[in-house]
Amino acid sequence: MNEFIEIANSLTDAAREIAQKYFRTPFDVTSKDDASPVTIADREIEARMREILEAQRPQDGIYGEEHGIKTGESGLTWVLDPIDGTKSFVIGRPTFGTLIALCEDSVPKLGVIDQPILGERWIGDGEQTFFNGQAVRCAPCSSIDTARIGSTTPAMFGNEPVYKKFNEGRFFWGGDCYQYGLMACGFVDIILEADMKPYDYAALVPIITGAGGHISDFAGRPLTLESDGTVATCGDPALWPEMQKRLSA
Known about the structure:
By secondary structure, the chain is α+β, with helices and mostly antiparallel strands. It has helices at about 1-20, 40-55, 85-90, 180-185, 200, 205-210, 240-249; strands at about 30, 35-40, 60-65, 70, 75-85, 95-105, 105-115, 120-125, 130, 135, 150, 170-175, 190-195, 215, 230-235.
């Protein structure tokens, strides 16, 4: 695992340099087929990370948001989201991040969240999670109704707004991947998301579990590259049984 952590750090260092170069500068923003924004930084970061992987791990697969899927021969796949939270990046808000996951047979084994402007990095392997080199843990929480709850946007839930089954007054919106790092450090108790892609959630799995939390789909199934896009996370696993009741009601 140390070898893979070293590679992940080199990928993240390269991504950080490019993100810093473009942050709060003039650049064009275009729309993808799903109307989500993309920038030169998104594409340049992923291209650079793929170059590094092709040089160091040519036998591995790559699953990237901007440049597609390369099938590997090793059973390992690197999952890349160069800028998770492109809307935040576009408006100059430092809550976006670079996400990197290493999956074995579609199961996330290593995850990185990097916030390049604040210089903050989380690395987890499912057993332990580190924030800027220091081990961190999720916080205990006695009740769902008093929990601090995060999500990216109400729009992602479509016509089935499951978040309404929780205390809406406890929600904060717009955290992107950064809110998962905050959960690993004990500042967020619950995160609910839907319509997520593998590059949105794969890196989060080893980070949250390594910090002692629970992360799954709404039905409680472990997240893999084939999951349905729902993500239910709680820092205190004792909250999960009641969360699952509400999500399935």
